[in-house]
Amino acid sequence: MPDNDPTGLYGLSNLPYGVFTTADAPDHRRIGVRYGDAVVDLGAAATALGSPHAALLTAPTLNPLLAAGRTVWSAVRADLRGWLTERPDELTLLPLSDVTLHLPFEVADYVDFYASEHHATNVGRIFRPDGAPLTPNWKHLPIGYHGRAGTVVVSGTPVVRPQGQRRTPDGPVFGPSQRLDIEAEVGFVVGAPSTLGEPVPQSAFRDHVFGVCLLNDWSARDIQAWEYVPLGPFLGKSFATSVSAWITPLEALDAARCAPPERTHPLLDYLADDTADPGGLDLRITVTLNGTTIAEPPFSAMYWTAPQQLAHMTVNGASLRAGDLFASGTVSGPEPHQRGCLLELTWSGENPVELPDGRRTFLEDGDEVVLTAWAPGPDGSRIGLGEVAGKVCKA
Ligand code: CA
């Protein structure tokens, strides 16, 4: 048994959920919970110990558990914590190195926001140097767009360099993207569905959102720059979105809740958060490129919170499904080393990033990007978010 070292990232206060297989049963996907460097076979535990939720926990994806709602999420987590402390000998724990991790849930709809004021300001300055950096709507609503759910992939999946149109002085040409980038983001996984026509207020956030994961929203800046006016991102984004293999339940992040930055503009009622529970999260993200740290974006600096995003994306009556995924948008802080994408870090290629194996403006074939993060947990402990790794392959 791994002990619950308070300085460890995957102790009893964390317990993130994933889906795994083992070499002797490669087609048998099972729900697991990470505990230290081990994986608890949750379905086996629930069956052996007589959990009333065993049917949900022996499913091949998290979706049935997601759909079951907050009361069940809390009960399963409480049971698991009890089993780990009181009946550890009755659990099946597998070494993390012996399992293969899979995309832990079937993604229903995928929405990507644009919630960092620092990121939006920097991108505005780069893409629209002659205009105001923020668009007139930016401080009044969390801007987002619908992405492609079917190309959300689990950490470790190679990312093939996308091909597409880009603009040149001689007109558009077709070929592999020459400005492939990352976006360090945080994803929120929706569990309990909602009813078509009924908006979900910020106050119901914890009833509907199951947990959190790191997310890399790979972006082809040259394709994006040519295609995005007037309808927004399309092929420059839809080729791959990587998520961590572990979904950290919201309950594990209670000690990380924090107030968002001061609001500079009054908000309409459904977005107002001056009296709401704090909707921000203190997540400390690290971005590495081929093993070198290139950025440390602070999630606490995000202007728009996840509860506001949930309220906004349902305010028109759009309903939620179990497995919906919404992402924060690139996480960038106010300092240059806190910028969550190469577009900002290199200022559109003007200031390359220095690595031991050479300079980078955008990603080269063979480059590997890894996002990691931790959050403060109870009693001085730390909560680790599962990493998101991805290596770029030739087109
Ligand atoms: Ca994005």
Overview of this protein structure:
- The protein is α+β, with helices and mostly antiparallel strands.
- It folds into two domains: 86 residues, Fumarylacetoacetase, N-terminal domain (SH3 type barrels, Roll); 284 residues, Fumarylacetoacetase-like, C-terminal domain (Fumarylacetoacetate hydrolase, domain 2, Alpha-Beta Complex), CATH 3.90.850.10.
- 17% of the residues lie in helices and 30% in strands.
- The protein is built from nine helices and 26 strands.
- A hairpin with a 2-residue loop joins strand 1 and strand 2.
- The radius of gyration is 21 Å and the shape is globular.
- It starts with 16 loop residues before the first strand and ends with a strand.
- Calcium ion binds next to loops.
- The site of calcium ion has 6 residues, from loops.
Short description:
The protein folds into 2 domains: 17-102, SH3 type barrels; 110-393, Fumarylacetoacetate hydrolase, domain 2 (Alpha-Beta Complex). The chain contains 9 helices and 26 strands. It starts with 16 loop residues before the first strand and ends with a strand.
Instruction: Tell the overall outline.
Output: globular
- The count of DSSP E runs of length 2 or more, i.e. the number of strands, is 26
- Portion of residues within helices: 10-25%
How large, in whole angstroms, is the Cα Rg?
21 Å
Q: Distance between the terminal alpha carbons, to the nearest Å?
A: 44 Å
Within CATH, the superfamily of the largest domain carries the name: Fumarylacetoacetase-like, C-terminal domain
Give the number of helices: 9
Q: Oligomeric form of this entry?
A: single chain
Mean residue pLDDT: 96
